[in-house]
């Protein structure tokens, strides 16, 4: 039996995201005052995705408790729709985008932090908040994957949705540059136009890889759990 019920974990994680978002929005950073505000940063978009996802998980938990024992096909149908939406969000947005943010941020940070998170930002963002945005996202989503079985869509459809998200963000980044004349991330300022195309293509490929890794990990966790249960019977 789990030491902490999964429902309690989800509420705790949701509250932590609310706290992170509130502290992040309260930061007095020049970049937040320019065109696009916080929404031009993938980190902020990811935080919103995670908060919405865990909010949906908590809503499903509450709905399940309220409808438990009730003989209503309509309530059951609505609950199944919410569960389907939750599973889709996990597969297409929460895991791949969250894992992508953690992987790319720390890879670039360790190579040369000035490319993605200039030292100047230490004057605005405390270390705990930086880790809340760029580190804890991954263990939180893995905890959710471990405690709840999520049904992934057909891989071709899932990858198409992830690619659409990736290309959409690339286009948004280019539009922000078109309007302001400044790239969202310092790394984009330092490379040639051709290198930017290669960089954007590589990042889109990476987020697709994250989708496949999430699908494989979800399958491994629940196939392994099912096997253990069968052996224990």
Automatic annotation (TrEMBL):
The chain crosses the membrane at residues 7-27, 47-67, 88-108, 128-145, 157-178, 198-221. Its main location: membrane. It catalyses: 13-(9Z-octadecenoyloxy)-octadecanoate + H2O = 13-hydroxy-octadecanoate + (9Z)-octadecenoate + H(+); 9-(9Z-octadecenoyloxy)-octadecanoate + H2O = 9-hydroxy-octadecanoate + (9Z)-octadecenoate + H(+); 9-hexadecanoyloxy-octadecanoate + H2O = 9-hydroxy-octadecanoate + hexadecanoate + H(+); 13-octadecanoyloxy-octadecanoate + H2O = 13-hydroxy-octadecanoate + octadecanoate + H(+). Keywords: Membrane, Transmembrane, Transmembrane helix. It is found in: Endomembrane system. It is a multi-pass membrane protein. One of its GO terms (cellular component) is endomembrane system. Belongs to the AIG1 family. This is Androgen induced 1. It comes from Poecilia reticulata.
